[in-house]
């Protein structure tokens, strides 16, 4: 990695608005919160802006949020009333949004700007522990609805120049996301898929890693871990933007929600 470029991250962002529910869920998110809070220390410098590839935004073609002051999207249900008044008032960056669109289109990937899109919880939930003062501009990138891993890897490659322009790229999803088995029944499949992720991301060569990610559905317990791959696709973008660089585990827990194995990764640096 060049010394003047940021790494990329794939983070497991947790459930709903958890940073604002510590009294309701004491201790549940302590390890994840510590890992997120450590990211600025790993970077050493504050990025000019953050590009978040969020699992909670899907469009027919890649879409980029260009609102200068994004509103809030409370895209969760069944949580305490106070969580629907959360504010995370980080600024947007129309300039960065246009740059993201330019890079994607130059790579032959259709994209559009969305000047109405607000922050969903795939963005404001993890960014609050990372930058609690909400003073770093944030732009969101949607997933493409076909969930094609090769296309999302290609999007990451197209966006790689941002890393030398002071932009931090974060893929925000979950390494295990099967809401119907978010308890003891998810223990074995989450562990099996997490072991495959570690082997694929950390131990394999860059060429092997890319090939394995394209064929991710053949991994052990793949469809038990991700019956719908929306929370896995942000990983593809993060890897594509740092395709030839080493991966490091920055968060790992084998008893998340008492049973699940989940991880987060950094690529580069």
Structure, explained:
- This protein is an alpha/beta fold.
- The chain has one domain: Protocatechuate 4,5-dioxygenase, Chain B.
- It is about 30% helix and about 20% strand.
- The chain contains eight helices and eight strands.
- The chain has helices spanning about 30-45, 95-105, 120-130, 150-160, 185-205, 205-215, 220-225, 235-240; strands at about 10, 50-60, 60-65, 110-115, 140-145, 165-175, 245-255, 260-265.
- The strands form two sheets. Strands 5-2-6-1-8-7 form a six-stranded mixed sheet, with helices on both faces.
- α1 (about 30-45) packs across α3 (about 120-130) and α4 (about 150-160) packs parallel to α8 (about 235-240).
- The longest helix is centred in the C-terminal third of the chain and has 17 residues, at about 185-205.
- The radius of gyration is 17 Å and the shape is globular.
- It starts with 7 loop residues before the first strand and ends with a strand.
- The mean pLDDT is about 95.
Summarize the structure.
32% of the residues lie in helices and 21% in strands. The protein is α/β, with parallel strands linked by helices and 269 residues long.
Which descriptors apply to this entry?
globular; Protocatechuate 4,5-dioxygenase, Chain B; 8 helices; alpha/beta; 269 residues; single chain; six-stranded mixed sheet
